[in-house]
Amino acid sequence: MSRTTVDFGIDLGTTNSAVAVLRGVDAEVIKNNEDADTTPSAVWIDKRDKLRVGRAAKERAESDPDNTAAEFKLRMGTAQEKVRFAASGRELTPPQLSAEVLKSLRADVAQRLGEDIEAAVVTVPAAFDMSSCEATRVAAEAAGLRFAPLLQEPTAAALAYGFQSADENARWLVYDLGGGTFDAAVIQLRDGEFTVLNHRGDNHLGGKQIDWRIVEELLIPAVRAEFGLTDLARGAARWRPVVNKLKLHAEKAKIALSRGTSADIEIDLDDGAGRRFEFYYELRREDVQRLAEPFLTRSVNLCRKALEEARLGAGDIAKLILVGGPTLSPYLREHLTHPEHGLGIPLDFSQDPLTVVARGAAIFAGTQRIPGGAAPVAAPGGFTVQLEYSPVGPDTEPLIIGRIAAADGTVPAGLTVELVNSTSRPPWRGGKVAVAETGVFSTTLWAQAGAANTFEIELADASGTRRELTPNTLTYTVGAVETQPPLIHSLNVGLADNTTVRLIERGTPLPARARKRLRTAAPVHRGGGRTGLIRIPVLEGEHARGDRNRTIGRLDITADQVERSIPEGSEIEVTLEIDASRIMVARAYIPYLDAEFENVIDLHTETLPDAAVLRRETEQELERLATVRQRHRDIGNPTSELLLARIDDEQTATDTQQLVEAAAADPDAAVAAQQRLRDLRAAIDEAEDELLWPSLVVRAKELLAYVRRAVDEVRDEIYRRQFDNLEVAVRDAIESRAPDLLRQRTAELSLLWRQILDHTGELPILIFESLARDRNQMIDLRQADDLIEQGNTAVRAGEVTRLRMINARLRQLFAEPPAEPDPFSTIRGA
Ligand code: ADP
Ligand code: MG
C-alpha cells in the first residue's frame, strides 16, 4: 500500500513506547512480537554483539546492568555521554539508543502489516527543550524514518480523546504522568483551531521516582537491617545489581497495588561474594500512597501554575484527561479529586492511558502529507493519481484536485472518478465526476468533524468498469492542528548583572526571530588575549535571574576577532533566529566596527553535571534555605509561609539531596539532580524575595535620595535626565512588586551614582577609604601605612589623579588579588 499521508504515530516513551496506525476513523495500536501494546524502551547488547529491545532488555537490567540501557530518554539532548555495553564493548548515545527502539517498532509494523514505513509522527513531552527535540529528530532519522514530524504528547492525547469534536471553545487540561516525565498542558479549541495555551512540565517527575522512593525508604533499610549489609545504598557501585533488582520488583509491586491493597515482594538477593539472601517484604498501598504524595503535590502545583499563567481557573476547564501508567493508580485519582489537594476539575480516564498518546499521534499522522513521497506506481493495467489537497483544514467540504494517468502516462477518454466514504453512517457517495483529457479532475468531499475521514477513490473507465488506482484512498480531517510545536521555553540572553533580556517568548510559533539592542559591559582590547571577550550567553527558561536558566549556547567575540578595540558601553545588536527545525543562530552586530559575528548554537553543549559540584551547590542552597527560614521566623508573613510550606510539601530539598547522593554512580540521577537543584533555587529565591522585599524597597528609596542629592549638586543635564528616567523605573518596579526588576534597577541606579561620584572626584576618595579600612588584610603593612599616609595627603590636597594611582597600588597589596572571573556575560541593557 502506498500512502500519501503519514498515518503512523509513535509514542517514544521514557519507559514504554508504542506505535499506532490510523485505520478509517480510528487509530489502532500495533502489537509487538510478544503481543503487547507497549514495548519497554530498554536496550540490551550481549557479548556476541546481538542487540535486543523491549521486555527482554528491561528484565536484563536486573541481572546484567552493565549490558543494558533504559530511561535514556531523560538524557536525550543533554551531554552526549555514551552508554557503554561492557560485554560487547559497544557504545551508544541516547539518540542511538532511541533509534533502536524506533527500529523495533518499525519492525513490528512490518511484521503485522507488511509495510516498511519511512514516515511516522513521533511524540515528545511538552517539557522537552530544543536540544531534546533535536536529538529525537536525529534518532528518527537513524531509525530510517525519513519524515518524522514531532508532536507534543499532550496534544496527541487530546486528539485521541476526540478533542476536535469537542464543543466549540472547549478547554481541557492534559495531565500526563509517565515513567519519568510529567506534563500539564492547557489545550483550547476555538473557531476550529487547536492550540496549546500553556504548559508546565518536569522532566524528572514520574513513576520511576515513586519506585526509587520505595527502594530507598522501604526496601534498602529493610535489607540492611535484616542481613546486616550496612553499605548497601543506591549509588554504591558494588550493589548496583541488587539495587536494580529491588527497583524492578518495587515497580511490579507498585503496579499490583493499583488493584489490591498489599503486594508481596519476594526476591533472591546475592551479595556478589557468593552469599544469597531470601528477601520478603509486604508492600502496602498506604505506604506507596504516602511516598507518592509529594510527587502528586508537585504535579498538582504545576497544573495550578499552568492554569494561573494562562489566567484560567478550574471552572474554565471542562475536563482533566489522564495520561500515563501511574494514572492507573486509585490513590492518584483520589488525590486529583480531593476537595483540598485536588484541582476541582472533573476527570476523564476513559481511554487506556498507556497507548492514548500513540493513538493520538496516529490521528495526527493522518493529517500529515508525506512530502516528496515516491511517485505512485501503477499496478499492471492500472492507473495512478496525484492528489492536490490539504489533508487537514477547517472546511467540512474541501476541494480535492487530482491528476490521473495510466502507467505509460496516457489518459484514455471517458474516465470518471467518485469519492466514497463507506465508514460514515450512512455511507456517503460524492457522485461521479468526469476526468478531463489532461487527466485532471476536481470534486468536493463531505467530511465529518471530530475524526479523520477516509475516502475510497473509485475510478471507472468509459464502459463503467472499475479500474485499479494507486493510491485508492485519501484521508481528510476537519480542524486545524498546529503542525509545528511552538517554542517550548523562552529564549533569553544573559546580562552581566545576572539579569536576562527576553528575545523570544515561549509559545511563539516557529520560525521566529528577534533582535535587541544592548551594550557591552567590558572593553575588548584588540590582541588582548583571554581578557578581551564579549560573551553573550543564550539562555533557555523563564527565570528572571540568568543563572536560574539553562545555558544552551554562547556567542563569544574574542579580542583576535576584532579589527580595533571596542570600548565598554558600545552598542551591540543581538539577534536570535530559530527555524522550524529548531536550529538556532545567534548574531551580534557591532555598529562601532560595522561588523557582524555569528554562531550556530550547538544544542548539545551542556555537559553532564559533576557530582561533586552538585553536592557543594546543594549544600549552599540548604544553608541559604536555613537562613531564609530563620528570617521567616523573625519577620515572616503569610506569603512567605506559603512559599516555604510548598518546598516542604513537594519535598524539593530532600528530593534534591537524594538525587545528589545517587548522582556519582547514576548519570540519570545527576541530570535529574541538576534540574531539581534549579527548582530548589527558584523556590528559595521566591521565599527570599518575599522576605527581603521590605529591605529592598528601603534600600532603593535611600539610594534614590542619595543620587538625587548628588545630581542636584553636579547640575549636569545628562545626569539629571538619566536620573529622572531611572527614578520612574525604580518606582515602577516597586509598584509592580517585582524583586528582580527592582534589584536590576537599583543596580543601575548605583552605577549612575558611581559615575557621578567619579565625575566629581569623590569616588576615588570613597574607594581609598574603603581600601584603608581593610588595611589589616594587606601583606606588607609598612608599605600599606606609607601608602595610606600619602593617600590622606592627596585627599587633603584634592589630588584626584594621584589618589587613583595610590588606590591601584593599595589594591596590589592584598594577599589574594581578586581573581579574573570567567565572565558569565559581558553585555548589559541598552
Ligand atoms: P512513559 O510515558 O514515561 O513511557 P508510561 O506512561 O508508559 O511512561 O508509564 C510508565 C510508568 O507507569 C512506570 O513507572 C510504571 O511503573 C507505571 N505504571 C504502569 N502501570 C501502572 C499501574 N497499573 N499503576 C501504577 N503505575 C503504573
Ligand atoms: Mg508517556
UniProtKB/TrEMBL annotation:
Domain of life of the source: Bacteria
Molecular-function GO terms, alphabetical: ATP binding; ATP-dependent protein folding chaperone
CDD domains listed in its UniProt record: ASKHA_NBD_HSP70_DnaK_HscA_HscC
Keyword annotations from UniProtKB, A to Z: ATP-binding, Chaperone, Nucleotide-binding, Phosphoprotein, Stress response
Keyword ATP-binding part of the UniProt annotation: yes
Entry keyword Phosphoprotein: yes
PROSITE patterns assigned to the protein according to its UniProt record, in alphabetical order: HSP70_1 (PS00297)
Similarity field: Belongs to the heat shock protein 70 family.
Protein name in UniProt: Hsp70 family protein
Lineage: Bacteria, Bacillati, Actinomycetota, Actinomycetes, Mycobacteriales
